[in-house]
Structure formats: C-alpha cells, structure tokens
C-alpha cells in the first residue's frame, strides 16, 4: 500500500477526499470536492501522534500538509475520521510503514501553539489568552470581518442579506431587546472593536461604555468613535470587566465574552453584572453554547492550543440557571445557530478573497490557523455540535419587570 492510500486509511477510507503524497502516490476519488496533499513525512508524524483534528491541524499549520479544494468540504469528511479508533501500536506501525520513522519523534509542535501558565482565568492569564487571539492585527481582522469589525454571530433577516446588513441587524436586535432609548446608560462587556457601543450611541442616543482586554481593540475603537463624532456619548476602555468602577447602568450587553469567563467563574460573572444594573435594568447575554451538558466545558484540541486558549462552553440551560441564581428573571431565549453558520461562511469567503494580503500581514502559519478555524467552526454550527444563544434577563423592580406583555423586538 502506497503513502497516499495509507494516509487516507488514517483519515477514513470512506471519506470523499482525494489524497496526493510527496512520493507521487494518489488515493481517493479524483473528482472529490476537497482533499489533502502530504508534503512531508512530518505530516504523518503529526497525524499519528495527536488525536483527531489536533494532529491534522499541526500538520496543516506547519505547511507539511496542504488542503486542496474547499476546506469546509474537507473538514466535513474529516469528521468521519477513524484515527481515534486506532491503537497506539497501529498508529506507530502506520507511521513506520509510511516512512515517518525517519522523523524525530515526537515531532516539534508549531511555534504558534499556545500554552498558558498561572491560575486558570486569573486576570493575568486571561490577558494573555485574549492577547493571543485578538492582539494580532487590526488590518487582518478588518480583511476577515469586513467594515463592521463585528466578531460575533450576525443576524440574517433574510437569506440574501449581506454580512454588513446582518451585523447591523444583530446590533439592532440587541438594542431592541435591551429596550435602549435616548439618555440611557449601556455597559458593553467584552466590547471588541466597539460595534455595539457605537451602534447604541449613534442610533439610540445612549451613553455607552465598552471594555475589552485587548489593547489593540480599544485603540482601534477609540479612534473609530472619534472619527464618527461619537466621543460625547461613546467610550471604549482597555479594562477587565471586573474592574469597571461605575454602577447603575440601565442595560448591559455581553456579546461573545461568556466563552472566555470559565464555567467555575460564571456565578460570579452574573452576580457582578447584576450588581452593575439599576433595578428594572436588562442584561443581554450572547454567547456560543454546547447543545447539551454531556461534553466537558473546556474546549480542547486545536481550538484550545491555537485559537481560544482556556475557552469554555456550557449549555443554554446552564446559562439560564446561573443567571436566575444571580437574581435575574430570564424573559427570552433565542438560538441563532444557523445564523452563525452563515456568518462564518461570509468570513471564510473574505479570508479566501484576501488570502495573499492575510499571509503578508500575519504570516502563513497564523493565516492557516484562521482558515482551519473558520471552516471548522462553520461545520460545527451546521452540524449542531455548537450553538449560539441570546439570553435576555431583567433585574426586577420589586415584582415589576418593566417588560412588554409580548416581545416588541420581533418586527
């Protein structure tokens, strides 16, 4: 059996993938929508030595393995991988047969692989985790995210909506769920590049404060606020949300922050936000969730090492229960899973269109991390291994929620 055939065996013989290898061998259907090119024996060592997608990711990030065709199609087939069912002896036998025995074992991990130290979710370690992912390049993010610089699930009001229209719709949906109005005060925790802060100030006359652990995000956001003439209403600070001194906010938005908090810290997180609201104020929590409580909260493998170090995901039920326990009355829950798949499809298209510029900006290894991460995340939302939930809660004013009898944000 030649190299390409043996590599395909490790991925899964029934996968609709074409594999080509550096020894000239080929396996799989030639008309497959995607495939792999094995450029070096190092790729084989990575795949055999690490479980599931992590080994493939290391091989791809290092350049020892190339994805041909559509990465999204390739990763759908990889989900059928049988490599985890192989015993260690089987893996070693395959590697030796494929010629990887000439490679040092274990092979060195790619330099971008992140390993954090210190107490998990301490302020110092959280700063490092956020810097790893977000303090990369604002230009790179602009190329991927588009003009909105919104790095969370968009909301598609119709199938043909553009990414920019859908991101505007997302910010406006959050504003309407929170009942924002002129003169109100909004706190946006984990505000990113300030999209929600600027939307609330510009379209609702709200005095909005955003905080982010990313210094580059804060610098970009403050400049954008000034350029849009919103400095009298909007502000973004480079600050841990736990260090916000102000209180008595009319509304709080948390869009894409909960994933970085840590399951053990969620009770304190909701209690802190509850304490920052005036009575009658609302919280809108928007975050990636797991579809059930069966899997561990901590993300593992490729995502933990390369994308979101220390990331943790819980179920929507856990979010609702913890918010309730902190004192919130939960009034609305919405799953936007399909919307995130569409958002990721648009981001993937942006990255492919600007691939050469992305490589120049952040280097080939980091660009490859992002190509894999975006395509893999799209697969996850499409196949319901992850979801996206918005949870709306209110800090009761006695027994009064100050809410409409029926949701008024649906039209």
From TrEMBL:
Classification via Gene3D superfamilies: Vaccinia Virus protein VP39
Pfam families assigned: CMAS (PF02353)
One of the GO BP terms on file: lipid biosynthetic process
InterPro entries: CFA/CMAS (IPR050723), CMAS (IPR003333), SAM-dependent_MTases_sf (IPR029063)
Keyword annotations: Lipid metabolism, Methyltransferase, S-adenosyl-L-methionine, Transferase
Top-rank lineage group of the source organism: Bacteria
UniProt GO MF annotations: methyltransferase activity
SUPFAM superfamilies per the UniProt record, alphabetical: S-adenosyl-L-methionine-dependent methyltransferases
Family of the protein in this entry: Belongs to the CFA/CMAS family.
Protein name (database record): Cyclopropane-fatty-acyl-phospholipid synthase
């Amino acid at each position: 059996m030649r190299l390409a055939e043996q590599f395909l065996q490790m991925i899964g013989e029934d996968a609709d993938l074409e594999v080509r290898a550096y020894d000239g061998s080929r396996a799989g259907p030639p008309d497959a929508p995607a495939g792999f090119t094995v450029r070096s024996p190092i790729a084989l060592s990575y795949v055999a030595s690490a479980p599931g997608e992590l080994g493939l990711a290391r091989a791809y990030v290092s350049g020892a393995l190339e994805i041909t065709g559509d990465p999204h199609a390739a990763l759908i087939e990889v989900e059928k991988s049988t490599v985890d069912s192989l015993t260690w002896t089987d893996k070693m036998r395959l590697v030796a047969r494929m010629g990887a025995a000439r490679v040092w074992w274990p092979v060195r991990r790619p330099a971008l692989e992140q390993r954090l130290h210190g107490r998990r979710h301490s302020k110092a370690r959280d700063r490092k985790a956020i810097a790893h992912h977000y303090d990369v390049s604002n230009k790179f993010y602009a190329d991927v995210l588009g003009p909105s610089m919104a790095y969370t699930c968009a909301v598609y009001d119709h199938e043909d909506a553009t990414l920019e229209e859908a991101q505007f719709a997302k910010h406006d949906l959050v504003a309407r769920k929170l009942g924002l109005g002129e003169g109100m005060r909004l706190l946006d925790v984990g505000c990113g590049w300030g999209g929600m802060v600027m939307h609330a100030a510009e379209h609702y006359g709200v005095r909005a404060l955003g905080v982010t652990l990313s210094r580059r995000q804060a610098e970009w956001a403050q400049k954008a606020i000034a350029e849009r003439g919103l400095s009298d209403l909007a502000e973004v600070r480079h600050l841990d949300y736990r260090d916000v001194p102000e209180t008595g906010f009319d509304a709080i938005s948390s869009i894409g922050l909960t994933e970085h908090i840590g399951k053990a810290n969620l009770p304190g997180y909701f209690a802190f936000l509850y304490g920052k609201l005036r009575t009658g104020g609302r919280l809108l929590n928007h975050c990636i969730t797991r579809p059930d409580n069966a899997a561990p909260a901590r993300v593992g493998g490729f995502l933990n090492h390369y994308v979101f170090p220390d990331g943790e995901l819980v179920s929507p039920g856990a979010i609702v229960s913890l918010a309730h326990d902190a004192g919130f009355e939960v009034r609305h829950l919405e799953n936007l899973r399909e919307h995130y798949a569409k958002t990721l499809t648009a981001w993937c298209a942006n990255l492919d269109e600007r691939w050469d510029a992305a490589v120049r900006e952040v280097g080939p290894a980091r660009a490859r991390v992002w190509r894999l991460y975006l395509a893999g995340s799209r697969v996850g939302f499409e196949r319901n291994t992850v979801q996206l939930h918005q949870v709306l809660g209110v800090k009761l004013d006695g027994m009064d929620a100050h809410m409409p009898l029926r949701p008024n944000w649906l039209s």
